[in-house]
Write the structure tokens for this entry.
Amino acid sequence: MANYVKNNLIQGEIIAYSTSYHWIIFLSAKSLLTLFLSPCIAKYSDEFTITNKRVIIKTGLIARRTLELNLTKIESVNIDQNIWGRILGYGSIQIIGTGGTKETFINIKKPLEFRKKFQELS
């Protein structure tokens, strides 16, 4: 559901890469306690997108939280993967912007591809 990103693209901006949460989010206590409703909502409402001009991350269904950083204002994208993350293809991404902005997002599908696409565009 890339509705937020598609509705907020500026002129000349195109989506270069988009990802979502890995299926591992369904294997948690929170998932069991909410009868898998919480991870379903997160998987289909949260967006992790790189365009040719910026990184756009939107989380939340009712209460929305967004991170929109121009590619030139991002110092680095760090990846953290444990052994299971390397085997199954998920991990955490930490986006560090100029001025000290640090945002971390966990259980992201194919985080190395996310970083690679960022590096190709910046």
